[in-house]
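Q: What residues go here?
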């Protein structure tokens, strides 16, 4: 018997579409999410819409209030500082664990994820931030791969998922990838990680997270 990755359900597909529209700002902070309107927008029935909204509420992309409905949560500096503050605490701990346990597979995974990210960064044409975000997350996860702490990794993934909204906010139509997410800094992080310099790698990763937070903070002030 062969086992493979199961195909996403309709509600999972709808969840992804709603999530992407929230990230892009098409469904803006504070907007009420009405099932009838979402049915028309995504051309699906009410049940997958409701299931998608419940799932997204677990990931804090949707705010659900009993008897009142659903909204896209507001963005705030308080949440921004909380999320990035937490990321800056947990990331170096996981990174150190991963580097101590690192092997050839870890090195290959890190090199591969960086290469995919840098290729997109250097590509011509319109900057696809959805794709960049996915590849950036793969790079960050490759850094932490092998860290022996399931609970902390789960917490990291929840945090990283929530800060996506703030990373997207930092991007403007006029900005380039390098202006917001400096690939040169990520290359230095990769090189120090491969050289097994734990102190320098954790320092650079922390500075990188701080820089992105500052970019998001500036964007938030303009909203």
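A:
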């Amino acid at each position: 018997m062969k086992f493979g990755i199961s195909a996403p359900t309709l509600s999972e597909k709808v969840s992804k579409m709603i999530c992407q529209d929230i990230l892009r700002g098409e469904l803006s902070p504070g907007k009420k999410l009405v099932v009838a309107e979402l049915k028309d927008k995504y051309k699906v029935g009410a049940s997958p819409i409701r299931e998608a909204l419940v799932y997204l509420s677990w990931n804090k992309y949707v705010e659900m209030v009993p008897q009142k409905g659903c909204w896209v949560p507001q963005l705030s500096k308080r949440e921004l500082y909380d999320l990035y503050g937490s990321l800056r605490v947990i990331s170096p701990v996981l990174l150190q664990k991963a580097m101590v346990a690192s092997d050839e597979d870890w090195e290959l995974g890190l090199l591969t994820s960086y290469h995919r990210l840098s290729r997109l960064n250097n590509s011509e044409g319109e900057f696809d931030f959805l794709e960049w975000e996915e590849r950036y997350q793969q790079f960050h996860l490759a850094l932490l791969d092998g860290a022996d702490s399931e609970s902390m990794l789960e917490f990291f993934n929840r945090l990283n998922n929530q800060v996506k909204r703030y990373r997207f906010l930092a991007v403007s139509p006029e900005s380039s990838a390098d202006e917001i997410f400096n690939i040169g800094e990520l290359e230095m992080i990769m090189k120090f990680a491969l050289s097994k310099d734990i102190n320098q790698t954790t320092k650079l990763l922390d500075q990188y997270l701080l820089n992105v937070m500052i970019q998001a903070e500036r964007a938030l002030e303009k909203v």
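A: Context that may help when evaluating the design: The chain has two domains: 10-71, 77-222. The radius of gyration is 19 Å.
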